[in-house]
């Protein structure tokens, strides 16, 4: 019976590659993670940051799309409130949470440097 277990013991101790082979076996996983980060995770984070800045800058007259797919025009927006008033049809206004806005289609906000041209 003991002769039956000896070949398995030799197979386990034979050919120890050391730390170098374990690092080389993780290298493809590290490479895949780096590629996924630059192709998927980082662009999504940048898109999310851009949406957050657009949501903070919402003004009256901006056309938006909500998470439910409703397209409307912002009628009232306050910086200290999470609610905005959106007109979804003529004379039909609803209150929407700012966090449910997924896209700002057109914005009436102007950049600070384009507000007024200097007179000569």
UniProtKB/TrEMBL annotation:
It is a single-pass membrane protein. It comes from Acetobacter orleanensis. GO terms for biological process: protein transport. The chain crosses the membrane at residues 20-40. The gene is yajC. It is found in: Cell membrane. The keyword Mitochondrion does not apply. Keywords: Cell membrane, Membrane, Protein transport, Translocation, Transmembrane, Transmembrane helix, Transport. Signal peptide: none annotated. Part of the SecDF-YidC-YajC translocase complex. The SecDF-YidC-YajC translocase forms a supercomplex with SecYEG, called the holo-translocon (HTL). The SecYEG-SecDF-YajC-YidC holo-translocon (HTL) protein secretase/insertase is a supercomplex required for protein secretion, insertion of proteins into membranes, and assembly of membrane protein complexes. While the SecYEG complex is essential for assembly of a number of proteins and complexes, the SecDF-YajC-YidC subcomplex facilitates these functions. GO terms for cellular component: plasma membrane. It comes from the Bacteria. The keyword Transmembrane helix applies. SMART domains: YajC. Belongs to the YajC family. Its main location: membrane. InterPro entries: Preprotein_translocase_YajC. This is Sec translocon accessory complex subunit YajC.
